What we know:
6-stranded mixed sheet, 266 residues, 8 helices, 29% strand, 7-stranded mixed sheet, single chain
Amino acid sequence: MTPDELLDVFHRRIRLPDADTIPGWKQELDGLVHRSYAEGPGGGGFVETPRGLGDDPDAVIAGQIEFFRERGLSFEWKTYAYDEPADLGERLVRAGFVAEEPETLILGEVDRILERPSALPSKVRLRDVQDQADFHRIAVLMDTLWNNGLERIEDRLANESRMFPDRLVVTLIEDTLAGPDGPALTAAWIRFHPGTGFASLWGGGTLPEWRRQGLYSAILAHRARIAKDRGYDFLRVDASEDSRPILQKLGLHAVTTTTTPYQFSV
């Protein structure tokens, strides 16, 4: 499929029905706004508007801020380069949102990944995990790389894995010489979106001293095989600039930028 065809399928199957909401989060359609959120410890919110914002975008934005403020929840407004209005990002910033680093929406067919060979270095092991100790090791890795919160990552992965084991597979790569208490070298997970044909890829961070040794490609191919075995045809990644060229080299397509996350903190 061409990049334009992939984007059209993604828009119709994922964005319009809001099919990639985090499992267990409340999901609501508020006019043109697709909204999901979870209250309590570790909670937060997520908003996007794949159908545009109508005649008064600023009023819609203000309404979402009020909604989340009343609940004491910080939230993210995710935009794509083709969203309307064209100045949505500027309007969000004026309303108090903070733009994070741009990402690239990467889409592709599972079979393209599986066409390419991948191999791990000797003395490392790849395995799927479900134990709390392994989720903690993954959280330590992600917090070391990106400073995005140890407890937040650990609790979210552990809770999601426990409540929705059919929707999430978490994988790590470890040094077999370091033992069970050694650091995770690479970690990543795959979420499945039933009825859409799409699975989404998350994580993929690797310790600096282990980069350029094929770990990222190996954990990507492993998740693609899982998706294939479960009958999924397409993969989706919101890729950083570090990951984008690797994914493209492996046969996936950059179809549009995710021109933020825009974050609003209460």
